[in-house]
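In this section we walk through a basic example: taking a raw amino acid sequence and producing a predicted 3D structure, encoded as discrete structure tokens. The instruction is simple. Fold the sequence below.
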Amino acid sequence: MHRRGFFEVLCASLISGNAYAANKRSKLSRSVPQLDESVSHLRHELYRHDFPGLVGAMFHTVGAGAQTAVGLSERASGHAMSIESVGRIASITKVISAMAILRLRDAQKLTLDDRLSKHLPELSAFDPDDSPILLRHLLTHTSGFQRDLPQGNLTTEDKFIRLVATAAKTKHAAGSKVMYSNLAMGLVGPIVHRASGMPYREYVESQIATPLGLRDVKWALADVDAKKRVRGYLKKTPERTKWKAAEGEWQMGAAESFGGIYTSIGDLCTLGQFALAAWSTDAWPVDAPISRDTMREAQTELVTMKPREQKHGACWWLGHDKKLGRTVHHSGATDEYGASLVILPDHGSGAALLGNAPGPHELEVAAKRLAAHMKAR
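The resulting token sequence is shown next.
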């Protein structure tokens, strides 16, 4: 990140506010001496990247972590990026949407092996008997649906589904290969609505976000408190030496289950700590949105693919590193925002980054470095 024209927000905090760390507060005092070093390391990492503004965090399953921010949330006003800043997490929304499907499965409202047409009969043409699209295919990017949404009216659920029925395409048989698809995960919102009887947003807020302790979830930039709002920026030159403020925001409409959520770095940490907690031996909270077994299932391969294919859980990308062991992650980007969340289940550590410009791969690599640093703390 260019130092000239930017200033650093010297703010750091202990990540200890969510329900899953509440019974571990006694561990914090023993970890506080390491906080300054962790913040310094985090700040150094953030300055390596050319973003108008960037906020990052490192965390353990429970206990002490570090958050800090650099740069500006809005260049015109000179407003500083902070650990309270709220921006779009884009495709990390998919992880939360998948949790909604898994919660409905646990409530016996659906199964992962339900055919797509059972819940969206308007799309029966995409559901042939010899290779039906199952719900698990939507969650693992193995449905065969094209990557992007077809151009057209997304303003209502009915119009969105009608658009898919008439304009969408499949590229391969369901379950035969991995091909990332925003369209497939965009269909999760209508499925959640029909299976639960609650609109997708309402279900996510009441059944996932609130019990999980996600405090900053919003669906439009205008709904974010002005003091926390992060303005997105477009890459103006290939070298990203100049930036152009985004005008408006991507209107995802009824397909927003693939990437619509705005939230804070604190909420990303809470999500990451919840995923890590599934692999710990600590007691599981009775009010958790899904069970420990279900959270573990979300981080394991849901569709068996060829050895060289990318492994995928319930919208978590799965990997293995010789030094880090298992890696579980997801990143997201629109033209104006970038975010990444990485956890290392074998070490109980993780990291998250949120910036007001695109760069998901760059942020994912950085988040892995930060999570690796945190595992030794």
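Looking at the output, two observations stand out. Residues 360-375 form the longest helix (16 residues). Confidence is low (pLDDT under 50) at residues 1-33. In the next section we compare this with other chains.
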